[in-house]
Amino acid sequence: MFEQLFKSIQDKVILTQEELELCKTFFIPKKLRKKQVLLQEGDICIYNTFIEKGLLRSFTMDEKGNEHIVQFAIEGWWITDLSSYLTNSTSIYTIEALEDSELLLLTTSAREALMDKIPMFERYQRLLLQNAYIANQARINSALTETAEEKYINLGNTYPGIVKRVPQHMIASYLGLTPETLSRIRKQISLRK
Amino acid sequence: MFEQLFKSIQDKVILTQEELELCKTFFIPKKLRKKQVLLQEGDICIYNTFIEKGLLRSFTMDEKGNEHIVQFAIEGWWITDLSSYLTNSTSIYTIEALEDSELLLLTTSAREALMDKIPMFERYQRLLLQNAYIANQARINSALTETAEEKYINLGNTYPGIVKRVPQHMIASYLGLTPETLSRIRKQISLRK
């Protein structure tokens, strides 16, 4: 159950076998079936969630009932509403499983305790935060400067695993396009090959 | 010269007097006069900059030559292009002093060394990253959901010190409004009082 988590940690920092075993005790394992919800909009996001297996998405809904997908996450990734999680405020996002998934949940107090006990876990968390910040910034810049086609191609290059596993209308929602526009773009790309 | 920095650190973590003295040796003090530039678009952002005194802004320029202000920062704050700083990539931002300013510069290698020597400095950096991430997320949500008037009022409530010290056309640029729209909004608000 902890294989992917240990890989994620040891890609960034060095922990002893003892420390890794200690880590285990702070996480709450949870399984979600496809379409089950981990976080409901309006609730406080009390878990930072590591994905051992499966695929989740976070999304927000506008007043007209249209979904806007904020993030996809697959095994080896973390997913949460970080603002809600860190500030204890209600979340504007829903997090839902798109495949049967195996998760490891970390509350804020468990996270604080882990960082106190294992300084290298704090470094791991800092490096995750840096990456999240950079990804967020890249997403903003992409929204401001790239054409629809560039956004689609870059998504496929950066996250090939996700594009293959997610229905096209969700890819469109993530990119801020209508399904029709995305379909037209994919046709144009395939004609050029 | 280190008053504001020490206050910023000790608001978040506890450092010994020895550790604070050690901190000093890792920063490069620098003074900028009004309108002088700290980072030029196209360069790599090699400093994370703490502001002891003064006011700076970061902005990007579109193809038509219009400036888009990304951030203001006053004494007690950090300013940098975090993505460029952390990934060694060229920056799309320019950082410029809007008042005569006194700065403390931290290179990435000095930051790494400080975090290795003083674990609580790493915690301080993690907490700064968390706040930066949350502020970034709030900025995105505000852009997506708030009216122009709400944006202006919230900016004044959140950062009264900045609104008073910055020319109105720059406030407009930060909020993504034309100066004329902002002027109309301010008139409407003052009429209602």
UniProtKB/TrEMBL annotation, chains A, B:
Report any Pfam family annotated for this entry: cNMP_binding
Any coiled-coil regions, as ranges: none
Occurrences of domain Cyclic nucleotide-binding (ranges) = 30-116
Name the InterPro entries for this protein: cNMP-bd_dom, cNMP-bd_dom_sf, RmlC-like_jellyroll
Q: What is this protein called?
A: Crp/Fnr family transcriptional regulator
Protein source organism: Flavobacterium zhoui
